[in-house]
Write a structure and sequence with these properties.
This protein is of the alpha/beta class. The protein has nine helices and 17 strands. Helices cover 27% and strands 23% of the residues. The strands form two sheets. Strands 1, 10, 11, 12, 13, 14, 15, 16 and 17 form a nine-stranded mixed beta sheet that branches. The two termini are 15 Å apart. It binds pyridoxal-5'-phosphate (PLP). The site of pyridoxal-5'-phosphate has 14 residues, from loops.
Length: 369
Protein backbone atom coordinates (compact mmCIF):
# COMPACT_ATOMS: atom_id res chain seq x y z
CA UNK A 1 0.00 0.00 0.00
CA UNK A 2 1.33 3.43 -0.97
CA UNK A 3 3.22 4.97 1.94
CA UNK A 4 3.21 1.89 4.18
CA UNK A 5 5.83 -0.85 4.04
CA UNK A 6 4.95 -2.66 7.24
CA UNK A 7 1.36 -2.12 8.43
CA UNK A 8 1.98 -4.31 11.49
CA UNK A 9 4.64 -1.92 12.78
CA UNK A 10 3.05 1.32 11.60
CA UNK A 11 1.29 2.44 14.77
CA UNK A 12 3.39 3.25 17.82
CA UNK A 13 6.65 3.87 15.97
CA UNK A 14 8.25 6.96 14.49
CA UNK A 15 7.16 8.02 11.00
CA UNK A 16 10.85 7.79 10.15
CA UNK A 17 11.38 4.39 11.81
CA UNK A 18 11.11 2.10 8.80
CA UNK A 19 7.41 1.19 8.59
CA UNK A 20 6.72 3.95 6.05
CA UNK A 21 8.07 4.58 2.59
CA UNK A 22 8.25 8.01 1.04
CA UNK A 23 6.54 10.08 -0.15
CA UNK A 24 3.94 9.88 2.57
CA UNK A 25 1.23 12.31 3.63
CA UNK A 26 0.59 12.61 7.35
CA UNK A 27 -2.23 14.12 9.36
CA UNK A 28 -1.35 15.87 12.62
CA UNK A 29 -3.59 14.59 15.41
CA UNK A 30 -3.51 17.83 17.43
CA UNK A 31 -4.59 19.92 14.44
CA UNK A 32 -7.41 17.55 13.46
CA UNK A 33 -8.76 17.48 17.01
CA UNK A 34 -8.47 21.25 17.33
CA UNK A 35 -10.29 21.90 14.03
CA UNK A 36 -13.11 19.44 14.72
CA UNK A 37 -13.67 20.96 18.17
CA UNK A 38 -13.38 24.55 16.89
CA UNK A 39 -16.08 24.24 14.26
CA UNK A 40 -18.35 22.23 16.56
CA UNK A 41 -18.08 25.06 19.12
CA UNK A 42 -18.65 27.72 16.45
CA UNK A 43 -21.80 25.95 15.24
CA UNK A 44 -23.03 25.57 18.80
CA UNK A 45 -22.49 29.24 19.63
CA UNK A 46 -24.37 30.38 16.53
CA UNK A 47 -27.23 27.88 16.64
CA UNK A 48 -26.05 26.18 13.44
CA UNK A 49 -26.52 22.48 12.74
CA UNK A 50 -23.24 21.07 11.48
CA UNK A 51 -23.49 18.70 8.50
CA UNK A 52 -19.83 18.58 7.40
CA UNK A 53 -19.04 17.84 3.77
CA UNK A 54 -17.59 14.31 3.78
CA UNK A 55 -16.24 14.58 0.22
CA UNK A 56 -13.19 16.28 1.76
CA UNK A 57 -11.95 13.14 3.51
CA UNK A 58 -14.29 10.19 2.78
CA UNK A 59 -12.63 8.74 5.86
CA UNK A 60 -14.72 6.65 8.29
CA UNK A 61 -12.41 7.48 11.20
CA UNK A 62 -12.66 11.25 10.65
CA UNK A 63 -16.41 11.11 9.96
CA UNK A 64 -16.87 9.25 13.23
CA UNK A 65 -14.87 11.96 15.03
CA UNK A 66 -17.10 14.67 13.47
CA UNK A 67 -20.26 12.84 14.55
CA UNK A 68 -18.85 12.28 18.03
CA UNK A 69 -18.19 16.04 18.25
CA UNK A 70 -21.86 16.75 17.58
CA UNK A 71 -22.33 16.84 13.80
CA UNK A 72 -25.99 16.13 12.96
CA UNK A 73 -25.11 14.16 9.82
CA UNK A 74 -22.83 14.38 6.79
CA UNK A 75 -23.01 16.06 3.40
CA UNK A 76 -21.83 14.33 0.22
CA UNK A 77 -21.70 15.23 -3.49
CA UNK A 78 -22.93 12.00 -5.12
CA UNK A 79 -25.21 9.01 -4.47
CA UNK A 80 -22.14 6.79 -4.58
CA UNK A 81 -20.58 8.76 -1.71
CA UNK A 82 -23.91 8.57 0.15
CA UNK A 83 -23.91 4.78 -0.19
CA UNK A 84 -20.30 4.59 1.01
CA UNK A 85 -21.30 6.59 4.10
CA UNK A 86 -24.16 4.16 4.67
CA UNK A 87 -21.51 1.41 4.83
CA UNK A 88 -19.77 3.49 7.50
CA UNK A 89 -23.06 3.47 9.47
CA UNK A 90 -24.05 7.11 8.87
CA UNK A 91 -27.80 7.59 9.23
CA UNK A 92 -28.28 11.26 8.20
CA UNK A 93 -27.04 12.24 4.76
CA UNK A 94 -27.46 15.35 2.61
CA UNK A 95 -26.49 15.25 -1.07
CA UNK A 96 -25.60 18.86 -1.90
CA UNK A 97 -26.56 18.46 -5.55
CA UNK A 98 -29.49 17.75 -7.80
CA UNK A 99 -29.38 14.03 -8.57
CA UNK A 100 -29.95 12.39 -11.97
CA UNK A 101 -28.37 9.01 -11.25
CA UNK A 102 -31.11 6.35 -11.59
CA UNK A 103 -29.19 3.46 -10.02
CA UNK A 104 -27.96 5.70 -7.21
CA UNK A 105 -31.48 6.95 -6.47
CA UNK A 106 -32.90 3.41 -6.51
CA UNK A 107 -30.23 2.28 -4.05
CA UNK A 108 -30.93 5.23 -1.74
CA UNK A 109 -34.69 4.61 -1.96
CA UNK A 110 -34.05 1.00 -0.94
CA UNK A 111 -31.94 2.15 2.01
CA UNK A 112 -34.69 4.56 3.11
CA UNK A 113 -37.28 1.79 2.88
CA UNK A 114 -35.14 -0.61 4.88
CA UNK A 115 -34.05 1.75 7.65
CA UNK A 116 -36.68 3.95 9.33
CA UNK A 117 -33.93 5.78 11.24
CA UNK A 118 -32.28 6.99 8.01
CA UNK A 119 -32.76 10.66 7.10
CA UNK A 120 -31.93 11.87 3.61
CA UNK A 121 -32.02 15.23 1.85
CA UNK A 122 -30.90 16.42 -1.59
CA UNK A 123 -31.08 19.57 -3.71
CA UNK A 124 -33.34 20.35 -6.66
CA UNK A 125 -33.19 23.33 -9.02
CA UNK A 126 -35.43 22.19 -11.88
CA UNK A 127 -38.77 20.55 -12.52
CA UNK A 128 -36.86 17.82 -14.37
CA UNK A 129 -34.89 17.13 -11.18
CA UNK A 130 -38.10 16.87 -9.15
CA UNK A 131 -39.62 14.50 -11.73
CA UNK A 132 -36.51 12.33 -11.63
CA UNK A 133 -36.80 11.96 -7.85
CA UNK A 134 -40.52 11.28 -8.11
CA UNK A 135 -39.91 8.44 -10.59
CA UNK A 136 -37.36 6.77 -8.32
CA UNK A 137 -38.91 7.29 -4.89
CA UNK A 138 -39.73 4.19 -2.88
CA UNK A 139 -41.95 3.81 0.15
CA UNK A 140 -40.59 7.01 1.77
CA UNK A 141 -40.38 10.35 -0.05
CA UNK A 142 -37.13 12.01 -1.05
CA UNK A 143 -36.90 15.21 1.01
CA UNK A 144 -35.55 18.11 -1.04
CA UNK A 145 -34.12 21.58 -0.60
CA UNK A 146 -34.81 24.02 -3.44
CA UNK A 147 -31.40 25.41 -4.41
CA UNK A 148 -31.04 29.11 -5.07
CA UNK A 149 -27.81 29.97 -6.86
CA UNK A 150 -26.17 33.18 -7.95
CA UNK A 151 -24.84 34.38 -11.26
CA UNK A 152 -21.48 32.81 -12.10
CA UNK A 153 -21.84 30.26 -9.28
CA UNK A 154 -22.74 26.59 -9.34
CA UNK A 155 -26.25 25.01 -9.67
CA UNK A 156 -29.37 26.60 -8.26
CA UNK A 157 -32.27 28.64 -9.63
CA UNK A 158 -31.11 32.10 -10.56
CA UNK A 159 -34.34 33.94 -9.65
CA UNK A 160 -36.90 33.70 -6.89
CA UNK A 161 -39.58 33.05 -9.51
CA UNK A 162 -37.71 30.02 -10.86
CA UNK A 163 -37.12 28.69 -7.35
CA UNK A 164 -40.80 28.99 -6.48
CA UNK A 165 -41.71 27.09 -9.63
CA UNK A 166 -39.36 24.25 -8.64
CA UNK A 167 -40.67 24.37 -5.05
CA UNK A 168 -44.30 24.09 -6.23
CA UNK A 169 -43.36 21.15 -8.44
CA UNK A 170 -41.72 19.48 -5.42
CA UNK A 171 -44.81 20.08 -3.29
CA UNK A 172 -47.06 18.62 -5.95
CA UNK A 173 -44.93 15.59 -6.87
CA UNK A 174 -45.58 12.17 -5.45
CA UNK A 175 -42.61 10.72 -3.59
CA UNK A 176 -41.01 14.14 -3.05
CA UNK A 177 -41.27 16.37 0.01
CA UNK A 178 -40.10 19.98 0.10
CA UNK A 179 -38.05 20.63 3.25
CA UNK A 180 -36.51 24.06 2.65
CA UNK A 181 -33.93 26.02 0.71
CA UNK A 182 -30.22 25.59 0.02
CA UNK A 183 -27.39 27.67 -1.40
CA UNK A 184 -23.61 27.75 -1.64
CA UNK A 185 -21.66 30.95 -1.13
CA UNK A 186 -18.17 29.51 -1.70
CA UNK A 187 -17.62 31.22 -5.06
CA UNK A 188 -18.42 34.69 -3.73
CA UNK A 189 -15.50 36.97 -3.04
CA UNK A 190 -16.64 39.53 -0.47
CA UNK A 191 -18.56 39.56 2.81
CA UNK A 192 -21.02 42.03 1.29
CA UNK A 193 -21.84 39.65 -1.56
CA UNK A 194 -22.28 36.77 0.88
CA UNK A 195 -24.61 38.88 3.09
CA UNK A 196 -26.73 39.88 0.08
CA UNK A 197 -26.91 36.24 -1.08
CA UNK A 198 -27.92 35.00 2.39
CA UNK A 199 -30.72 37.58 2.44
CA UNK A 200 -31.97 36.28 -0.92
CA UNK A 201 -32.02 32.78 0.58
CA UNK A 202 -34.00 34.04 3.59
CA UNK A 203 -36.44 35.80 1.28
CA UNK A 204 -36.92 32.55 -0.67
CA UNK A 205 -37.57 30.71 2.57
CA UNK A 206 -40.30 33.19 3.52
CA UNK A 207 -42.17 32.42 0.31
CA UNK A 208 -42.28 28.67 0.92
CA UNK A 209 -45.08 27.12 2.90
CA UNK A 210 -42.97 24.55 4.76
CA UNK A 211 -43.25 23.67 8.42
CA UNK A 212 -39.95 23.69 10.34
CA UNK A 213 -37.95 24.63 7.24
CA UNK A 214 -34.28 23.87 6.69
CA UNK A 215 -31.82 26.36 5.24
CA UNK A 216 -28.53 24.77 4.17
CA UNK A 217 -25.47 26.84 3.24
CA UNK A 218 -21.83 26.94 3.89
CA UNK A 219 -18.30 25.97 3.08
CA UNK A 220 -15.16 26.85 5.03
CA UNK A 221 -14.66 30.43 3.77
CA UNK A 222 -17.64 32.43 5.03
CA UNK A 223 -19.09 30.73 8.10
CA UNK A 224 -18.42 33.88 10.15
CA UNK A 225 -20.81 35.86 7.95
CA UNK A 226 -23.29 32.96 7.97
CA UNK A 227 -23.16 32.76 11.77
CA UNK A 228 -23.71 36.51 12.15
CA UNK A 229 -26.48 36.86 9.56
CA UNK A 230 -28.43 33.70 10.33
CA UNK A 231 -28.12 33.51 14.12
CA UNK A 232 -31.69 34.79 14.60
CA UNK A 233 -33.15 32.96 11.61
CA UNK A 234 -36.19 30.79 12.38
CA UNK A 235 -35.14 27.98 10.05
CA UNK A 236 -32.88 25.08 11.00
CA UNK A 237 -29.62 26.25 9.48
CA UNK A 238 -27.42 23.39 8.27
CA UNK A 239 -23.77 24.30 7.72
CA UNK A 240 -21.88 22.09 5.24
CA UNK A 241 -18.22 23.07 5.83
CA UNK A 242 -15.78 20.34 4.81
CA UNK A 243 -12.25 21.68 4.28
CA UNK A 244 -12.07 23.05 7.83
CA UNK A 245 -11.25 19.57 9.17
CA UNK A 246 -7.67 19.64 7.94
CA UNK A 247 -7.47 23.30 6.89
CA UNK A 248 -4.29 24.01 4.85
CA UNK A 249 -1.21 26.15 4.31
CA UNK A 250 -2.48 27.79 1.12
CA UNK A 251 -5.96 28.42 -0.26
CA UNK A 252 -7.88 28.13 3.01
CA UNK A 253 -5.20 29.76 5.15
CA UNK A 254 -5.74 32.89 3.05
CA UNK A 255 -9.53 32.66 3.06
CA UNK A 256 -10.51 31.28 6.46
CA UNK A 257 -13.05 33.29 8.50
CA UNK A 258 -10.36 33.34 11.20
CA UNK A 259 -8.59 36.06 9.24
CA UNK A 260 -11.62 38.20 10.27
CA UNK A 261 -12.72 36.80 13.63
CA UNK A 262 -10.90 35.59 16.70
CA UNK A 263 -9.72 31.99 16.74
CA UNK A 264 -7.86 29.76 14.34
CA UNK A 265 -7.81 26.53 12.43
CA UNK A 266 -4.55 24.57 12.17
CA UNK A 267 -3.07 23.01 9.03
CA UNK A 268 -3.22 19.24 9.66
CA UNK A 269 -1.75 17.77 6.46
CA UNK A 270 1.89 17.55 5.55
CA UNK A 271 3.72 15.58 2.87
CA UNK A 272 7.21 14.18 3.43
CA UNK A 273 9.49 13.16 0.56
CA UNK A 274 13.16 12.70 -0.30
CA UNK A 275 15.21 15.16 -2.29
CA UNK A 276 16.08 12.96 -5.27
CA UNK A 277 18.52 15.25 -6.99
CA UNK A 278 20.20 18.64 -6.79
CA UNK A 279 21.28 18.69 -10.44
CA UNK A 280 22.41 22.32 -10.51
CA UNK A 281 22.97 24.96 -7.82
CA UNK A 282 19.69 26.22 -6.43
CA UNK A 283 17.49 23.52 -7.98
CA UNK A 284 16.11 20.46 -6.21
CA UNK A 285 13.97 17.62 -7.52
CA UNK A 286 11.77 16.24 -4.75
CA UNK A 287 10.15 12.80 -4.87
CA UNK A 288 6.46 13.59 -4.79
CA UNK A 289 4.09 14.96 -7.39
CA UNK A 290 0.53 15.35 -8.61
CA UNK A 291 -0.31 11.78 -7.59
CA UNK A 292 0.58 12.58 -3.98
CA UNK A 293 -0.44 16.17 -3.21
CA UNK A 294 -3.03 18.66 -4.46
CA UNK A 295 -2.06 21.17 -7.14
CA UNK A 296 -5.43 22.54 -8.35
CA UNK A 297 -5.85 25.43 -5.88
CA UNK A 298 -2.27 26.41 -5.12
CA UNK A 299 0.96 24.39 -5.06
CA UNK A 300 2.50 22.62 -2.06
CA UNK A 301 4.08 24.95 0.51
CA UNK A 302 7.71 24.22 1.52
CA UNK A 303 8.20 23.82 5.28
CA UNK A 304 11.01 23.13 7.74
CA UNK A 305 14.37 22.58 6.02
CA UNK A 306 12.99 23.88 2.69
CA UNK A 307 10.98 26.82 4.07
CA UNK A 308 11.95 29.78 1.91
CA UNK A 309 12.26 27.66 -1.23
CA UNK A 310 9.79 28.11 -4.10
CA UNK A 311 7.88 25.36 -5.82
CA UNK A 312 8.43 25.99 -9.54
CA UNK A 313 6.45 23.09 -10.91
CA UNK A 314 4.66 19.92 -9.82
CA UNK A 315 4.90 16.98 -12.23
CA UNK A 316 3.20 13.61 -11.93
CA UNK A 317 5.88 12.13 -9.63
CA UNK A 318 8.24 15.08 -8.98
CA UNK A 319 8.25 18.56 -7.55
CA UNK A 320 10.79 21.05 -8.84
CA UNK A 321 12.07 23.42 -6.19
CA UNK A 322 14.05 26.66 -6.47
CA UNK A 323 16.28 26.78 -3.36
CA UNK A 324 17.44 29.98 -1.71
CA UNK A 325 21.16 30.81 -2.13
CA UNK A 326 23.41 28.79 0.21
CA UNK A 327 20.68 26.26 0.97
CA UNK A 328 22.27 23.16 2.55
CA UNK A 329 19.63 20.90 1.00
CA UNK A 330 21.24 17.84 -0.63
CA UNK A 331 20.18 14.59 -2.30
CA UNK A 332 18.72 12.14 0.20
CA UNK A 333 17.34 14.76 2.60
CA UNK A 334 13.80 14.17 3.81
CA UNK A 335 11.84 17.40 3.45
CA UNK A 336 8.26 18.43 4.16
CA UNK A 337 5.54 20.53 2.57
CA UNK A 338 2.18 21.83 3.63
CA UNK A 339 -0.67 21.48 1.16
CA UNK A 340 -3.19 23.78 -0.48
CA UNK A 341 -6.78 22.50 -0.91
CA UNK A 342 -7.66 19.57 1.37
CA UNK A 343 -10.49 18.35 -0.89
CA UNK A 344 -7.98 17.03 -3.44
CA UNK A 345 -5.44 15.80 -0.86
CA UNK A 346 -7.13 12.93 0.99
CA UNK A 347 -8.18 11.19 -2.25
CA UNK A 348 -4.53 10.58 -3.13
CA UNK A 349 -4.02 8.30 -0.12
CA UNK A 350 -5.85 5.09 0.88
CA UNK A 351 -4.14 5.10 4.26
CA UNK A 352 -2.67 8.09 6.07
CA UNK A 353 -0.66 7.97 9.30
CA UNK A 354 -1.82 10.26 12.10
CA UNK A 355 1.15 11.64 14.01
CA UNK A 356 1.71 13.40 17.31
CA UNK A 357 3.97 16.44 17.67
CA UNK A 358 7.06 14.17 17.74
CA UNK A 359 6.04 12.29 14.57
CA UNK A 360 5.16 9.16 16.48
CA UNK A 361 2.38 7.47 14.51
CA UNK A 362 -0.60 7.27 16.86
CA UNK A 363 -3.21 6.03 14.42
CA UNK A 364 -3.99 5.29 10.77
CA UNK A 365 -6.91 6.82 8.88
CA UNK A 366 -8.37 5.26 5.76
CA UNK A 367 -10.16 6.89 2.82
CA UNK A 368 -12.81 5.51 0.44
CA UNK A 369 -13.16 7.64 -2.70
C1 LIG B 1 -22.19 22.59 -2.39
C2 LIG B 1 -21.03 22.62 -1.47
N1 LIG B 1 -21.26 22.75 -0.15
C3 LIG B 1 -20.25 22.77 0.74
C4 LIG B 1 -18.94 22.66 0.34
C5 LIG B 1 -17.85 22.67 1.37
O1 LIG B 1 -17.01 23.78 1.21
P1 LIG B 1 -15.52 23.78 1.80
O2 LIG B 1 -14.77 22.76 1.04
O3 LIG B 1 -15.05 25.18 1.58
O4 LIG B 1 -15.61 23.43 3.23
C6 LIG B 1 -18.66 22.54 -1.03
C7 LIG B 1 -17.27 22.45 -1.50
O5 LIG B 1 -16.95 22.43 -2.65
C8 LIG B 1 -19.74 22.51 -1.96
O6 LIG B 1 -19.52 22.37 -3.27
Amino acid sequence: MKGIVDPGKAVGSSLFGGAFSFPVMVAHRGALEHNIATLAAFADQHGLILVPHAKTTMSPELIRAQLDAGAWGLTVATPSQALTLREFGVSRILIANQVFDPAGLDAIAAQLAGDPSMEFLCFVDSVAGVEMLSRHAGTRPFRVLAELGHEGGRGGSRTLGQLLEVASAAQAAEGVELAGVAGYEGALTSAGEVRAYLHRLLEALEHLRVRDPILSVGGSQWFDVIGRELVTCQAKVMLRSGAYISHDDGYYRERTPYTRIEGELLAALEIWAHVLSVPEPGLAIVGFGKRDAPFDEGLPVPRGAVAGATVLKVQDQHTILRLPPDSPVKPGDLVSFGISHPCTAFDKWRVMPVVDDDYVVVDLITTYF
